[in-house]
Amino acid sequence: MAEKQNGLKRGASSFSLVGKVAKFNKFTFQIDEKSKKSDWIYNSLNLGINCGEECGVIYGKAMGGYGKDRKNLVYVHGKDENGYDDFDNRFDIAWEDRDNKDILMTIGKNCFYKAGLKKDVNDNLVIEEFLSSYDFINYIKENLEEGMIVNVKGNLKYSFNNDDNVVVNKEIKAIYLSNKKPEEYDAKFTQTVLFDKDCLDVKKYDKDKGCLLIDGYVADYLKDYKGVDVKQTYPFKVNFEYKIDNSDNEKYLKLIRLLFKVKEGVTAITFVGRFIEGGTIVTATYDDLDDDIKQMVDMGIYELDEALDKCSVSSNRERRMMLIKPDIKMIINEDGTKTPKLQIDRKKYEESDLEFILPKATNKKQDTEMKVVDPKLDDEEAADLEKLLKELGD
């Protein structure tokens, strides 16, 4: 078990892939796969989307199933009196009731997987909703075709592989037909990134990529580590790139210092970014797992999808997460008007919140030679930052 609880909360972490469905292979759909040592039956999806020349083919995944000889539950949350998701009202329903229309009416919209792969007589998308990814994958298998233009949406989830490298999984929650043209294909994400005073090194600029290389932390739930329960929000250290022109050295230094330098504590910034990937990935199946790992799955120490993910093999696959610009959110004022606000929160956490001792291993932020001091942004500096970001553009 982890040594202490921290104050971290999971921030924004989502993606949208727009492009052409890549050619199917034997790993794209696995339907009603059966565990050889338990009653587990599952569907899995490993879907490639060609998101254009710059972004490449990006893969998203989904997996879900049930135990044939056990009581299966679907965990959901309800709605408030205004019909919005009430995340505090959590309950479960029987697997057999996952299509019960009366029950579905009481469940918050964020619980559902959504697919829009058909159109009605008026050329409008027909949206189907599913409580289980098992049913969601079945529907996609029956209706998706190679070469379709789609928009795939979902959540980013962070974990460790067998070599303790951080893995970013794109877990699909929705898929819709799209009318986008090839020049409009894209692979975007929105991610809250945490920065401490040691994250920025102004010299780490890659001229070939036109990016500042910067490490940040992403807070995400960690169920276990090497078979030992953690069950806490963990600060995963992630390598990012920030797209910026450094030909004007004065402007370059001013912008990145206003944006990334931290005086004390931990700064949280929600970015809009872009995936740039290439290469291929081979996804493991239950049969590919060695006997020890199979036994851990069958005993419930690992969920099957976690084990498969950790044992999947990737070739020389480029995986870049490029930060483009801070996100802007419209804030509703007391008088009902709206004000745009950069999603930058100075001193969101304490530095100690990024220190985390894992079972059988220690993972603390490491000291670097660079020690930076940054005054907290006053109104004038904040205005300078917004002006520079506007000049930078998309």
From TrEMBL:
Protein name from the UniProt record: Uncharacterized protein
Organism name: Thomasclavelia cocleata
